[in-house]
Amino acid sequence: MYKNLMELKDRVIVVTGGTGLLGKEFCRGLAEFGAEVIIGSTNKENGKLVSEELNAYLNEDKVSFNILDITSEKSIDEFILKTEEEFGKIDVLVNNAYPRNKKYGTKFEKVEFDSYSENVISHMGGYFLVTQKISKRMMERKYGVIANIASIYGVLGPNFSVYEGTEMTMPVEYSMIKGGIINYTRYLSTYLAPYNIRANCISPGGIFNHQPSEFVEKYNDKVPLGRMADPSDIVGTLVFLSSDASEYITGQNIMVDGGLSVW
Ligand SMILES: NC(=O)c1ccc[n+]([C@@H]2O[C@H](COP(=O)([O-])OP(=O)(O)OC[C@H]3O[C@@H](n4cnc5c(N)ncnc54)[C@H](O)[C@@H]3O)[C@@H](O)[C@H]2O)c1
């Protein structure tokens, strides 16, 4: 029977950065499909608020919060211990956190090397570290699913004309980090396949978050579907990749961008 292929009942799913713009909707969607969802984030206050809000919406306790800093080995070890004590296992890891420092977003020619290094290590390095540690436990159990949240800018060169007339830019670190995460996913997919672990990537297009209208109009013009994404637009792909509906898919990067990358 195929109709329950997207069912996530009895799956324990960790969403790093689950309190953020995309993360919160990911948690809502995964929990609606039956998963036990654990938000792993540095933001304790928001973590509690978001899990309470989602549980009230779901009318049952499906979302919880454990503190996690993906840049700290100690924090990751403690997070895994606590989560496994509470839920017995981690079936699915969604790497979605978005660490960046105060200088992130500086124009290319002004980026200082120390700041560059800090952003690359915390974001790409954090995805490396948390995946290395959680996949080790998955390898022991011979089951796991990894979903990495990358970006269209890990695949495409930025079109800087959309930022004209605004303070916005596409940080150079972001292109390098997300490109690295997409190829890290390919590495994970072949390395971990013998352990029955799949690894895939989602590359969302720009998410509408009240950006300046000059930017939004120019961006929308470049999208065949004519608009920026809403966080809810990305949820279905994550549910699909987390579930048995994608059992024979690994190492792939799915562009969820309204067709931006097509022309
Ligand atoms: N917003 C977009 O337009 C967009 C587009 C494409 C891809 N993405 C990607 O989607 C993911 C989520 O982005 P978002 O816009 O929801 O970000 P956001 O800033 O709204 O949320 C980021 C979350 O990460 C958490 N976080 C930060 N540092 C952390 C750390 N060291 N350890 C654990 N958690 C940490 C924050 O507390 C927050 O919950 C990111 O990987 C981002 O690159 C976003």
List the helices and strands and how they pair.
Layout: E1 12-16, H1 21-32, E2 36-41, H2 44-58, E3 63-67, H3 73-87, E4 92-95, H4 113-141, E5 144-149, H5 172-192, E6 197-204, H6 213-221, H7 232-242, E7 253-256
Parallel strand pairs: 1-2, 1-4, 2-3, 4-5, 5-6, 6-7
Keywords:
14% strand, 7 strands, 263 residues, alpha/beta, globular, Rossmann fold, seven-stranded parallel sheet, binds nicotinamide-adenine-dinucleotide
Quick structural summary:
The protein has helices at residues 21-32, 44-58, 73-87, 113-141, 172-192, 213-221, 232-242; strands at 12-16, 36-41, 63-67, 92-95, 144-149, 197-204, 253-256. It is an alpha/beta fold and 263 residues long.
Report what the structure shows.
- The structure is a single chain.
- 43% of the residues lie in helices and 14% in strands.
- The mean pLDDT is 98.
- Helix 1 (21-32) links the parallel strand 1 (12-16) and strand 2.
- The protein has 263 residues and is α/β, with parallel strands linked by helices.
- 41% of the residues are buried.
- It has one domain (12-254): NAD(P)-binding Rossmann-like Domain (Rossmann fold), CATH 3.40.50.
- A seven-stranded parallel sheet has the order 3-2-1-4-5-6-7, with helices on both faces.
- Helix 4 runs parallel beside helix 5.
- The protein has helices at 21-32, 44-58, 73-87, 113-141, 172-192, 213-221, 232-242, and strands at 12-16, 36-41, 63-67, 92-95, 144-149, 197-204, 253-256.
- The structure holds nicotinamide-adenine-dinucleotide (NAD).
- Residues 16-17, 19-23, 41-43, 68-71, 96-99, 122, 126, 149, 151, 204, 206-207 line the site of nicotinamide-adenine-dinucleotide (NAD).
